[in-house]
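Quick one:
INPUT:
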């Protein structure tokens, strides 16, 4: 199999293994990478990519330093605030429940070598993720973003919890070291709404139609849950361009 076909992305039409998207070269002059990952809290391939990106960055260190910031994307931008029954929603989205289960099986198999356990049978609802992105934004302000993102993926894909519910988001944030009362107050207010909407618009302006998409110094360089060594190679290519 062509190694470039091993990546996978999620878009509004669903998630599937697919070709890696190509982007323009990075133009910058630093050996410290400012990495942004455009992702959704219910994107299964984004969880796989998170694991692989972590190992790629470990391979680059200490020669190349990097910071990682998670940015929002909505796979289901028209999802009702309360979410929908997952079986009903995905059966309609993909044409049948059997097709949905086949897609689930693909990502389950792909995540296993990375130590990820997907429990799709526990997942009863497809949530609206806007508030999850507000939580991720808050976590970024308090240097807890990686732990919150990991907690959201674990809560949804492994534990089957509804990450559209305020109580669940508060649990995830508190487990990552955020103040629970602070989280609930934020969710009960308009805090972060405009900022998340602005970042969603930015993703659109960058022509991001599937996630995960990884940016270096503001420029998209690859998308998809490609293999760790391919991520490392693409990041090294970005550094090489930056040093020219």
């Amino acid at each position: 199999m062509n190694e470039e076909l091993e990546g996978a992305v999620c878009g509004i039409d669903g998630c599937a293994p697919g070709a890696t998207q190509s982007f323009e070269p990075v133009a910058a002059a630093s050996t410290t990478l400012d990495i942004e990952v455009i992702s959704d809290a219910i994107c299964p391939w984004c969880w796989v990519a998170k694991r692989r990106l972590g190992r790629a960055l470990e391979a680059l260190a200490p020669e190349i330093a990097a910071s990682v910031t998670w940015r929002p994307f909505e796979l289901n931008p028209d999802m009702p605030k309360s979410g929908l029954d997952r079986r009903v929603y995905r059966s309609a989205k993909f044409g049948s429940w059997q097709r949905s289960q086949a897609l689930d099986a693909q990502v389950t198999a792909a995540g296993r070598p990375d130590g990820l356990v997907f429990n799709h049978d526990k997942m009863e609802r497809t949530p609206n993720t806007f508030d999850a992105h507000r939580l991720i934004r808050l976590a970024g302000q308090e240097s807890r973003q990686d732990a919150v993102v990991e907690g959201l993926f674990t809560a949804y894909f492994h534990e089957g919890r509804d990450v559209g519910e305020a109580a669940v988001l508060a649990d995830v944030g508190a487990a990552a070291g955020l103040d629970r009362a602070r989280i609930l107050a934020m969710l009960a207010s308009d805090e972060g709404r405009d900022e998340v909407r602005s970042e969603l618009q930015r993703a659109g302006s960058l022509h991001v139609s599937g996630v995960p998409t990884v940016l270096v110094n503001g420029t998209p360089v690859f998308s998809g849950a490609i293999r760790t060594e391919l991520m490392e190679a693409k990041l090294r290519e970005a550094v090489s361009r930056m040093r020219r």
